[in-house]
Predict the 3D structure of the following.
Amino acid sequence: MKRTLFGLFALVLLVTSLPAQKRYKPVDPQATREARQLLRYLYKLRGKVILSGHHNYNHSLSQYSARLREITGEEPAIWGSDLSYLRADFGQAVVEEALRQHRSGHIITLMWHVGRPQDNPPYPWKESVQAEMSPEEWEALFDPDSEIHRRWLAQVDRIAPFLQQLQNEKVPVLWRPYHEMNGIWFWWGDKPGEDGYIRLWKALYERLVHHHQIHNLIWVWNANAPRDRENDEAYAYADYFPGLDWVDVLAADVYHNDYRQVHHDQLVEMGEGKLMALGEIGKVPSPEILDQQPLWSWFMIWATWEERINSPEDLRTLYQYPRTWNRDEAQPLKWVP
């Protein structure tokens, strides 16, 4: 443990005694008690603490978090994985591991790498998840009488029972579907405007929240940090943002140490006081970067990138940074009424 119990207690008192910042209610008016509790907890820590997190593939559900513990001596506060169709039996294994991680004190975040609705699972990566949809196919996606729309409904309906299981077990989920939408590499990406990605986000929200009555989700809108690289573009956040009424957390993905201040500050402006996070990272930020960009509520290192691009010393520095809270410091279910 990087802090003594006395030091941890003093920090908790400091955080809880500071003047309250603007805090938003969940965008889901029927959000569960646990989801509201987690959201309140994150708002209490906003600007003072960054929670550590790590992604694990759904075929190796704790491997990378465990390796991180070997390197740093700490466990991430947040455990992440994927409700992806890249394997046939993906869902139940993810749910069971999420329950285990939740019971051991971790916060849960889930994403959704899904193939095009017109394709059949398990979806091939390049040929489906990263394939294109024509303008005609995209328009048909929202036509209730179309086959693509029916297949899209089936996709959503297939993951709903897994999220429902977590709701039944009172597990709140930081839910970040259809991520990196401002990039060019997923079928849902590079579709700006109200008739583009924004329409898809709202349709997913309506299906899960109103049709399936799933209310344990904190909705994380997760863009890629904008950049302009040949064959790897990610465009301005604003063209893909559904609006404050549809998003609980604004997040960005940063892989190549491209922690530009403007990308942090643009989300601050768009969010108008809403929470922000580093949804996925590759090269970890330095303490100096985190000092300059204090409003990230959490970071999540992507699986193999912990050692692919970072040295053990990089990881230990991040996990020992005084504002980083790991699993032993971060216990929202105990601290927030």
